[in-house]
């Protein structure tokens, strides 16, 4: 009877005792964790061990006695881990670029896991610090506001020296004298080739614009409409735009006798910079009044068209002569200020905003976009008298080129975009071969052009 009594008592109080024991064990585990001891690891039962042994046995790689120990270890590693653990590395670079999930905004760019760049791209190109060629330019007009140099699509470099224009064939090396003004006191102020490279426009100090047939070395026509010297010129198909010291910009339709079709009056002082965009939609002008203006394209019969500027920016604090359109982003315009400003500014024509600005610490006389390496070239006067290559769009300096003893007046890019020509007040012209194309890229580009031409010919048939 006593035994049965104690059995009933134990059955009644057993759950409470078990709960008390469990609570004590939990308190003990938490106290151990707070004291810094190791975590509690539960006891594994025999059923779990049997399952693990079965899985290992089931996935055991088929190995024969002919395999070496290292081969068996490799097979085990591949079966268990999915890869050979002996080849694993900590912080290993490779694989595909990680993609953010949909809707995730992450400003941090993935630096690792990207595909490796080709060797031809990784290799940093060498930019020679000295000119490839140096030519004499006696009697050059040392005037910041003039544009005395232009390179044609046929690799002919036109240079204005006082009242004469000379043509240098940069492929064959020949030099010819194209023209000379009749009056000794007059001088050439600006030059501009047509896109095809057959005709050269010449602006002069006697307020005229001359058009020359280069192949026959003959003046086609002389157009008079300005009241002051013509210091800037730019072509857009058959429309020739000219900027004058009066602040006016004239559009000339060279196909008709009444060539003067439109006048733009946005500047109050000399127009020293003039550039049509590559797609022919916009004309950018810079003046001695520190303004940068963007004008719409002139249609046929331009007298009835809108002559108001789309944008008029006054951020520069000096004369704006340096203007350049980006050839791979047609809505991007670069402008450079004179001695009082010294800044390069990048503009978005679509939005009308200034994207970036850089203080060059020197007068900016010319700007060029170099498409071979997507870079921006600036030439400078006081006080550095140098040429600087900038990475675009970061505007980090790539290299400085020193070869002139006086301010650089103008610059022009060769047709293959590999060489820059600069003319300076020290009466020299320097040819800088700074953008030679990588042989691998050049071969790929030639193959692409050839395939496009073949497709075009087939479509024509």
Automatic annotation (TrEMBL):
WD repeat start-end pairs: 181-222, 264-295, 338-357, 401-433
Pfam family, one: WD40_CDC20-Fz
Gene Ontology MF annotations: anaphase-promoting complex binding; ubiquitin ligase activator activity
Annotated InterPro entries: Cdc20/Fizzy, WD40/YVTN_repeat-like_dom_sf, WD40_CDC20-Fz, WD40_repeat_dom_sf, WD40_rpt
CDC20/Fizzy WD40 domain ranges (all copies): 135-432
Transmembrane segments: none
Keywords (A to Z) from UniProt: Repeat, WD repeat
One GO CC term, this protein: anaphase-promoting complex
Stated name of the protein: Cell division cycle 20 homolog
Organism: Takifugu rubripes
Name of the coding gene: LOC101065248
